[in-house]
Amino acid sequence: MEDSETSSLSGLQAVPDRGMVLSITTSDHLSESARPSKHRERPSKSPRRRRKGTSLQRRGDVHEQLLSENDRQRLPGQHKHLEPSGLASDPAESSPKRRAHFLHGPYPATQFGPKARILPNPTSVMHIQDPASQRLTWNKPPVNVLIIRKIRDETLVEPFKELCRFLVEEKQMMVYVERRVADDVTLSQDETFSSIRNQLCSFREGFDDISDCIDLIICLGGDGTLLYASSLFQGSVPPVMAFHLGSLGFLTPFKFESFKMEVAKVFEGNAAITLRSRLKVKVVKVPLQREAQQPYSGEPQPEQQNGPLPHGHANNESGKVTLQLQVLNEVVVDRGPSSYLSNVDLYLDGRLITSVQGDGVIVSTPTGSTAYAAAAGASMIHPNVPAIMVTPICPHSLSFRPIVVPAGVELMITLSPDARNTAWVSFDGRKRQEIQYGDCIKITTSCYPVPSICCHDLVYDWFESLAQCLHWNVRKRQARLTDTSDSSDTEN
Question: Which of 145, 194, 280, 488 fits a 20 to 30 Å CA distance from 186?
Answer without folding.
Answer: 145
